[in-house]
Amino acid sequence: MYDVEIKDLSVYYGSVCALQNIDLKIKSKEFLGIIGPNGGGKSTLLKVLLRLIKPTTGSISIRGSGPIGYVPQFAFFDRSFPINVLDVILMGKLPKKIKWFRRYSAKDINHAEKIMEELGILEFKNRQIKQLSGGQLQKVLIARALITDPKILLLDEPTSSLDSKTKKEIYEMINRLRREKTILIVTHETEDIFPYIDSIAYVNKTLKYYKNDLELSHGIVKKMYGFPNKLITKEEIIHRKLVSYREDRDD
Amino acid sequence: MIKTLFGYTFMQNAFMAAILASIVCGVIGTIITQKRLVSMSGGIAHASFGGIGLGYLLDIEPIIGGLIFSVLASLGISIIKRKTNTYSDTLIGMFWSFGMALGILFISLTPGYPPDMTSYLFGDILTVSSLYIKMMAILSFIIIFFIACIFNYWRAYLFDEEFTKTLGVNTLALEYTLFILISLSIVILTKVVGIILVIALLTIPTAIAKLFTYNLKNMMTLSSIIGAIFSISGLLISYQYNIPSGATIILLSVIGFFLISLIYKKISRNQFKQ
């Protein structure tokens, strides 16, 4: 049973092609890493999944009725915005049809507190978001996605610009959710997520899907590189291209 | 002096107008600054000048024309931006000058003596009529009603529009409603402080309030109070020295802002030292 099925999907911005003929099937409870170079279409894929933009051609079907639990990049937020942690998390409780005079119920607040407690951020409940560290804000955003009780969780660069200890903490936190949820994670930090993920989607206009082979990952290749075999070749090619590009420019 | 002042109907009206304008500014100004819509509001304000000119030409109440133009301009900017991917800054600039140019053209075509446009550019709070006060009161009520009864949605939309959209909330409807509310507010304020000075009254009280609170609702309330203090004291000073009221209110607000933020910085630095 698949949670997400993308069939022959393309996205064009005017005449510019961002994604071309993409096929992707994501199983229920799968933990998928989405990687690829900047400008390769990762964020376009993310927006298509979130139904923020419509594909030019092709189809996408997502199982279940509720929204995908979206955890955006915390670095993009205006930290001086006058809002506290509880109110950020409660955003996830807004009904999609705008209801007049709706206030958050005691039940909503209890739910938020329960999630905050599980993620270890209950003590920040009334803090303004400016007074949080990057890692703490990231946890708040995860809590906000979790309160919508999503089947699928989608995280955009959850650990960029965090120190390695906080990074590990966030990954462990995400890893604990994998039994209940399908998890999609967009990241640059392939090495860090490798121990956790089931599969990888490499997006660079087209999409290539790799299984994270257990034998491989626990075998020699992982010890040496921290990547499965196929991935290395791909990454290496890009790396070489980049290096030669730079050399060309230096000339 | 105060007692004789309030004996005049025009002075009573002026005070009422100042208070209503401050409430509107506090609420809408907070939203505009948080959503980074300040230059957009400038564009809407100037586009309304075209409508005011048209009002004179067609012999209808100029403020109605201004209202129609500012609503059309705000929705126009939003729609064209979405359809064509033009930078909204560029569009705002175009609507800004287009509205002003139309206004001047319409007024030159108006038969008879040209109307005195400085009252729309710089505002004239002392000429506000009782009817206009009633109109302002109704419009203020509409604005506060729309903001208050779906406040949680506004906060979500202002803080993280994208996430709100992924929840399935119709953020486009929120955006259009917001633009219409901004247009309404600007038209209300035009009569009081004038097109050119609208932006100052929308941004300055909010900027000061932001120093003291981290709560969106309190920020709106505090901005309204600060705005009221500036407009009423500006009004009194302008009466006392017989100088233009709109300009006095704004000058007072700007000076107030710099003084308060200086003092605030000094105090918080001292606290930091300890």
Automatic annotation (TrEMBL), chain A:
PANTHER family: METAL TRANSPORT SYSTEM ATP-BINDING PROTEIN TM_0124-RELATED
Keywords noted in UniProt: ATP-binding, Nucleotide-binding, Transport
Assigned protein family: Belongs to the ABC transporter superfamily.
Residue span, ABC transporter domain: 4-230
Annotated Pfam families: ABC_tran (PF00005)
CDD domains assigned to the protein according to its UniProt record, in alphabetical order: ABC_Metallic_Cations (cd03235)
Matches recorded under InterPro entries: AAA+_ATPase (IPR003593), ABC_transporter-like_ATP-bd (IPR003439), ABC_transporter-like_CS (IPR017871), Metal_Ion_Import_ABC (IPR050153), P-loop_NTPase (IPR027417)
Native species: Paramaledivibacter caminithermalis (strain DSM 15212 / CIP 107654 / DViRD3)
Gene Ontology molecular function, alphabetical: ATP binding; ATP hydrolysis activity
Protein name: Zinc transport system ATP-binding protein
Gene3D superfamilies the UniProt entry points to: P-loop containing nucleotide triphosphate hydrolases
Automatic annotation (TrEMBL), chain B:
UniProt keyword terms in alphabetical order: Membrane, Transmembrane, Transmembrane helix, Transport
Gene Ontology terms: biological process: response to zinc ion; transmembrane transport
UniProt membrane topology term: Multi-pass membrane protein
Transmembrane segments: 14-32, 37-57, 63-80, 92-111, 131-154, 166-186, 192-212, 219-239, 245-264
Subcellular location: Cell membrane; Membrane
Family: Belongs to the ABC-3 integral membrane protein family.
Protein name: Zinc transport system permease protein
InterPro entries: ABC_BtuC-like, ABC_TroCD
Superkingdom classification of source: Bacteria
